[in-house]
Amino acid sequence: MQELIEIGLKKVLPGILINQIAFYSLYKILKNNECIVDVAYTVSHLVAGSIYAYHFGLSSFESKFKLGLLALWTARLAGFLFYYRIMRGFRDPRYDVIFQKYKKETLKRDVVVFCQYIFQGFIVFVTSSSLYFLFKNQLNPFQLAILGTSIFWIYFEGLADHQLQQFKDSKNKPQNSICQDGLWKKSRHPNLFFDLMTWTTIAIASIKSRHDCLALISPLVLYYVMAGLTVPLTERLMKKKRGDQFIQYCSNTNKFLPI
């Protein structure tokens, strides 16, 4: 535990915050495209994992495999967000409240957004803590097999994002309709579910002793952020835009589980 705190505070947290500040600078350069914060979140996990990986050594194939899986998750999600959100100029309605409230007060808006980037950095510091155990421990074949299933979850998270994007790009969909294609027919947030499964898999695969159970803090905090912040905010906006149609969709569809 002491080693985790020491490495985390001296190396990982500063690395994450530097990355968040760099992405905030990019946010300003690209004329306040708020979706960059989501890319920053993803890349900051790779920064944290890379620091843990280099601290414990990257000479073995196992260590490279672990870092490769993390890089795959980052490249898939960050690439999707960069192309479909930033390159296409998508404006996220979740951040509209900030821009509307401080529409004429640019400095205050910038301070609020900057604080959001920094706060997110601290969240990443916690949610990436399972990576400490992942790179510290040498895994047995059974644990490596468990870790390997993360490829499955990464694929299905990507599939959920792809299905939703296809729906959004469709020119024949009814106005104000709700995506109920593929995985979205069974779950209101399948992409979040599979993302949570990725990090749960990483945490479980990393446990070799009872002290390593601290790795579970990562998916638990991630679930709390999803269930307590991301989902309620998204669904309030959907309810406002779609009304009774979205309420009916919620009554017939699980929040997370795609079954």
From TrEMBL:
Gene3D superfamilies: 1.20.120.1630. It comes from the Eukaryota. The chain crosses the membrane at residues 37-55, 67-84, 111-135, 214-233. GO terms for cellular component: membrane. InterPro entries: UstE-like. Keywords: Membrane, Transmembrane, Transmembrane helix. Pfam families: DUF1295 (PF06966). This is Steroid 5-alpha reductase C-terminal domain-containing protein.
